[in-house]
Protein backbone atom coordinates (compact mmCIF):
# COMPACT_ATOMS: atom_id res chain seq x y z
CA UNK A 1 0.00 0.00 0.00
CA UNK A 2 1.28 3.44 -0.90
CA UNK A 3 -0.04 6.49 0.96
CA UNK A 4 1.15 10.08 0.47
CA UNK A 5 -0.17 12.87 2.69
CA UNK A 6 -3.28 10.86 3.56
CA UNK A 7 -3.99 9.94 -0.08
CA UNK A 8 -4.10 6.28 -1.04
CA UNK A 9 -2.06 5.94 -4.23
CA UNK A 10 -1.99 2.17 -4.70
CA UNK A 11 -2.86 -1.15 -3.07
CA UNK A 12 -1.63 -4.69 -3.54
CA UNK A 13 -3.32 -8.03 -2.93
CA UNK A 14 -1.58 -8.14 0.47
CA UNK A 15 -3.62 -5.11 1.57
CA UNK A 16 -6.92 -6.89 0.94
CA UNK A 17 -7.70 -9.51 3.58
CA UNK A 18 -10.35 -12.10 2.72
CA UNK A 19 -11.65 -9.77 0.02
CA UNK A 20 -12.01 -6.83 2.42
CA UNK A 21 -10.09 -3.55 2.44
CA UNK A 22 -10.34 -1.51 5.66
CA UNK A 23 -8.40 1.65 6.40
CA UNK A 24 -9.33 4.38 8.86
CA UNK A 25 -6.30 6.60 8.27
CA UNK A 26 -6.58 7.70 4.64
CA UNK A 27 -8.63 10.77 3.68
CA UNK A 28 -8.45 10.45 -0.11
CA UNK A 29 -8.36 7.67 -2.70
CA UNK A 30 -6.44 8.37 -5.91
CA UNK A 31 -7.45 7.54 -9.48
CA UNK A 32 -7.91 3.85 -10.35
CA UNK A 33 -6.66 2.56 -6.99
CA UNK A 34 -9.23 -0.27 -6.81
CA UNK A 35 -9.63 -0.79 -10.55
CA UNK A 36 -10.25 -4.39 -11.69
CA UNK A 37 -9.27 -6.22 -8.50
CA UNK A 38 -11.10 -9.52 -8.84
CA UNK A 39 -10.71 -10.51 -5.17
CA UNK A 40 -12.15 -7.26 -3.79
CA UNK A 41 -15.53 -7.79 -2.04
CA UNK A 42 -15.83 -4.89 0.41
CA UNK A 43 -14.29 -1.45 1.00
CA UNK A 44 -14.61 0.33 4.36
CA UNK A 45 -12.81 3.66 4.89
CA UNK A 46 -14.43 5.88 7.51
CA UNK A 47 -12.30 9.00 6.95
CA UNK A 48 -12.16 9.23 3.14
CA UNK A 49 -13.67 12.52 1.94
CA UNK A 50 -12.53 12.50 -1.70
CA UNK A 51 -12.09 9.93 -4.47
CA UNK A 52 -10.55 10.35 -7.91
CA UNK A 53 -11.78 8.75 -11.16
CA UNK A 54 -12.32 5.02 -11.78
CA UNK A 55 -11.61 4.25 -8.13
CA UNK A 56 -13.88 1.25 -7.69
CA UNK A 57 -14.62 0.18 -11.25
CA UNK A 58 -14.59 -3.28 -12.85
CA UNK A 59 -14.50 -5.27 -9.60
CA UNK A 60 -16.67 -8.29 -10.35
CA UNK A 61 -16.88 -9.48 -6.72
CA UNK A 62 -17.36 -6.07 -5.07
CA UNK A 63 -20.58 -6.26 -3.07
CA UNK A 64 -20.33 -3.52 -0.43
CA UNK A 65 -18.83 -0.03 -0.17
CA UNK A 66 -18.95 2.02 3.03
CA UNK A 67 -17.48 5.53 2.91
CA UNK A 68 -19.44 7.56 5.50
CA UNK A 69 -17.36 10.77 5.21
CA UNK A 70 -17.10 10.84 1.40
CA UNK A 71 -18.26 14.18 -0.02
CA UNK A 72 -16.65 14.20 -3.49
CA UNK A 73 -16.44 11.34 -5.99
CA UNK A 74 -14.86 11.42 -9.46
CA UNK A 75 -16.06 9.91 -12.73
CA UNK A 76 -16.92 6.22 -13.18
CA UNK A 77 -16.12 5.30 -9.58
CA UNK A 78 -18.76 2.61 -9.18
CA UNK A 79 -19.10 1.41 -12.77
CA UNK A 80 -19.20 -2.22 -13.87
CA UNK A 81 -19.52 -3.91 -10.50
CA UNK A 82 -22.12 -6.61 -11.15
CA UNK A 83 -22.22 -7.89 -7.55
CA UNK A 84 -22.57 -4.46 -5.92
CA UNK A 85 -25.55 -4.63 -3.57
CA UNK A 86 -24.78 -2.10 -0.81
CA UNK A 87 -23.36 1.42 -1.08
CA UNK A 88 -23.23 3.70 1.97
CA UNK A 89 -22.29 7.31 1.10
CA UNK A 90 -24.38 9.50 3.47
CA UNK A 91 -22.23 12.65 3.13
CA UNK A 92 -21.84 12.61 -0.67
CA UNK A 93 -22.56 16.02 -2.25
CA UNK A 94 -20.65 15.89 -5.55
CA UNK A 95 -20.42 12.98 -7.98
CA UNK A 96 -18.90 12.72 -11.45
CA UNK A 97 -20.31 10.83 -14.42
CA UNK A 98 -21.73 7.32 -14.16
Please describe the structure with a list of short key phrases separated by commas or semicolons.
6-stranded mixed beta sheet; 28% strand; single chain; mainly beta; 10 strands
Give the SSE layout:
Layout: E1 2-4, E2 7-10, E3 20-22, E4 28-29, E5 42-44, E6 50-51, E7 64-66, E8 72-73, E9 86-88, E10 94-95
Parallel strand pairs: 2-4, 3-5, 4-6, 5-7, 6-8, 7-9, 8-10
Antiparallel strand pairs: 1-2
Describe the overall structure.
The mean pLDDT is 94. This protein is mainly beta. The termini are far apart. The chain is globular and about 30 Å long. It has a 6-stranded mixed β-sheet with strand order 1-2-4-6-8-10, with no helix packed on it. A 4-stranded parallel β-sheet has the order 3-5-7-9, with no helix packed on it. It is 0% helix and 28% strand. β1 and β2 (7-10) form a beta hairpin. It has no helices and 10 strands.
Helix content: under 10%
Shape: globular
**Biggest beta-sheet profile:** 6 strands, mixed
Secondary structural class: mainly beta
Strand order of the largest sheet: 1-2-4-6-8-10
Q: Encode the helix/strand succession as letters.
A: EEEEEEEEEE
Low-pLDDT ranges: none
Radius of gyration over alpha carbons? 12 Å
How far apart the termini lie comes to 27 Å
Query: If you average the pLDDT, what whole number results?
Result: 94
How many β-strand stretches?
A: 10
Proportion of strand residues: 25-35%
Number of helices: 0
